[in-house]
Amino acid sequence: MSGEQELGITESKEHSPGDWYAEVVQKAGLADYAPMGGFIVTRPRGYALWEAIQDRLDGWFKETGVTNAYFPMFIPESYLEREKDIVEGFDPEVAWVTKGGHDELEEPLAVRPTSESIIAPFMAKWTRSHRDLPLRLNQWCSVVRWEATETKPFFRTKEFLWQEGHTAHETEDEAWTETMTRLDQYERIYEDELAIPVLRGRKPEHDKFPGADTTTTVEALMPDGKSVQGGTSHYLGQSFAEAFDITFIDEDEEERVAHTTSWGLSWRALGALIMTHSDDQGLVLPPTVAPTQVAIVPIWQEDTKDDVLQYSAEIAAELEDAGVSVELDDRDGRNPGFKFNEHELNGVPVRLEIGPNEVEDERVTVVHRPDGESVEEDRSGIADTVEEHFDTVYDKLYAAAEENLEENVREAHSPEDILGTIGRYGGYVKTPWCGDEACETAIKEEIAAEIVMLPLDEDGASSAESAEGDDGEEQIGDECGVCGDEATETAYFAKSY
After folding, report:
1. What is the DSSP code (8-state) at residue 43?
2. For helices 415-425 and 437-447, angle between their N-to-C axes, nearest 10 degrees
3. Cα dihedral 87, 89, 90, 93 sign
4. What is the CA radius of gyration of the chain?
5. Whose CA is closest to 334, among 299, 386, 379?
6. Most exposed: 23, 385, 408, 471, by fewest CB within 10 Å?
7. 7 and 15 in contact (C-beta within 8 Å)?
8. Which residues, in sequence order, are CB contacts of 219 under 8 Å at separation 6+?
């Protein structure tokens, strides 16, 4: 049937990852392209994935003292200019509103590229005493950065959804602990909810958030060898607090400047999720975030239809009572094969197949989406059994992503080795680095790879400040892998989204 042919994925993930990705996003009903270049329409199934991430993170934020607020999407030009690094860092990407209706505005309004410059003044207003600290705010919103040249849904769009947290603290240590707490939570969302292992690190000085003291990051490796910046948490030091007068009276009645942080995770996480696990049959999702966790497909002839449907409905009800998201696919107009393909395309992690044999034997056939593994299980205790299969499916997805990461971190100690290794294999290439941006530029100009992270130790310092990295790695050499000068730290090069 032509409908069945149109349903399937026609591009290859291995050979045409860009076209394949775009096809999965559209055919699995996650997003459509908007009429304006650089924008997308997020469809219900795609938004449900974002809601799953939002739900987990929002809960963790609130457990650690964060409250949600909402600030205007428009920022007066004078506010943006109060932090010069923000202006310089985002100026090419800022969209401006200069008219309201038919009237010219007295002051241009920026469409927020990030909200430090509109949130910080109110943090200053609300902070008077040390008793007002720590102040922890978060907002869920969209931002606009006018830099997307080629739309890649969830990875690269002019407008994107995210959360941005902003906090103020009495001391540097408290602010740094906050920075690491949020980085931990970003690592947790990827590893415990999205089945994607990540590397933790910090950005080099020339690539940190404008005005920040330190930018920390979690990086995820995609199957095509490119890195995704999965989320960033910034220790801003006191520069923003000084620019926006975020001060407080301490216990000794002395006025002091606060230490601030900001941190954000965007729907780029959805791009990483889709790219990491999906295959040439369509979307693949872990049960933790899948909008539909189980599809039940009854298989009947006319003389067995009533029994099969009743048995299937009873199982569906039992799973729903246990909190499982279930679709009982009892459509008359589609055969079982079509239904199997459709649920595979849509990324349903577990499928239950129920025919007259299953009814007679009080059994259920359980099929895993990632690899098609099929297992017969007893009808009794089906809810607990399905939860066990969820864990198995999750473990399969994580193991495959972990293998991809472990096999694609390589060392190189010369420009030729760095370029050749990235060119041939992709992935991460770690090399000793002198700290000079010119060495990154030399590689970037040749192969469009950049330094995506520097290792952190347990306190968040770079490998230059600690003999041991976060994962126990030592600095891998004394001479910079690009220029040969004295190396001060280990740099991870990669192409990135």
Report:
1. P
2. 40
3. positive
4. 25
5. 299
6. 471
7. no
8. 198, 199, 200, 201, 227, 228, 229, 230, 428, 452, 453, 492, 494
Cis peptide before 134 (omega within 30 of 0): yes
Q: Per-residue pLDDT for the chain (497 aa), expressed as one digit of tens each?
A: 333 446 689 999 999 999 999 999 999 999 999 999 999 999 999 999 999 999 999 999 999 999 999 999 999 999 988 877 777 777 889 999 999 999 999 999 999 999 999 999 999 999 999 999 999 999 999 999 998 678 999 999 999 999 999 999 999 999 999 999 999 999 999 999 999 999 999 999 999 998 899 999 999 999 999 999 999 999 999 999 999 999 999 999 999 999 999 999 999 999 999 999 999 999 999 999 999 999 999 999 999 999 999 999 999 999 999 999 999 999 998 999 999 999 999 999 999 999 999 999 999 999 999 999 999 999 999 999 999 999 999 999 999 999 999 999 999 999 999 999 999 999 999 999 999 999 999 999 999 999 999 998 755 554 334 333 444 457 889 999 999 999 999 999 999 99
Gap between the Cα atoms of 419 and 422, Å rounded: 5
Its CATH architecture, for the domain 294-405, is 3-Layer(aba) Sandwich (3.40)
The edge-to-edge listing of strands for the beta sheet with 74-76 is 74-76, 103-111, 95-100
CA atoms of 168 and 158, how far apart (whole Å): 29
What CATH number does the domain located at 409-494 have?
3.30.110.30
pTM of the model: 0.94
Name the residue among 108, 116, 107 with its Cα closest to residue 83.
Answer: 116
CA 321 → CA 287, 316, 330, 384, distances in Å? 17, 9, 19, 12
Distance CA 337, CA 443 (A): 50
Helix axes 44-63, 172-188, angle to 10 degrees: 140
Q: Which residues pair with 261 in a beta bridge?
A: 167, 235
CA distance 219 to 227: 6
Token duo for residue 267 = 């729907």
Provide CB contacts within 8 A for 98, sequence distance 6+.
104, 105, 108
Boundaries of every domain in the chain: 2-277, 294-405, 409-494
Rounded-to-integer distance, Cα 23 and Cα 43, Å: 14
Burial of 334 (0-12, 13-18, 19+ CB in 10 A): middle
Q: What is the largest CA-CA distance in the chain?
A: 85
CATH top class, domain 2-277: alpha beta
Cα(260)–Cα(8) distance, integer angstroms? 49
Residue 199 contacts residue 218 (beta carbons within 8 Å): yes
